[in-house]
Write a structure and sequence with these properties.
The protein is of the alpha+beta class and about 90 residues long. It has a single domain, classed as Ribosome hibernation promotion factor-like (Double Stranded RNA Binding Domain), CATH 3.30.160.100. It contains two helices and four strands; from the N terminus they run E-H-E-E-E-H. It has a four-stranded mixed β-sheet with strand order 1-2-3-4, with helices on one face. Strand 1, helix 1 and strand 2 form a beta-alpha-beta unit.
Amino acid sequence: MRLTIRDHRRHFNRQTHAYAEYRAFACLAGHGQSVAGVTVTLTRAAAADEAGRCAISVTFTSGEVVGARAAGSHIYAAIDRAVRRLARRAALSE
């Protein structure tokens, strides 16, 4: 499984990147060999009531792509929400 973290403007530190990587990997570990790649994109939110946004895109070896997005008052909250949504969608794709 190839996992990429995108943070184009480097708004978030390496600890945040590591957290996003860990959460995405833990969510998809059960899918093992069927996951070809994962991209987690972190962005700072424009809205005053949101600190950040997280988008996760998973490409399976079958070619199917499943994704999830979320925003939160803290980037960690956005990551957690996106991972929960992804877990539900990945389970549906099996």
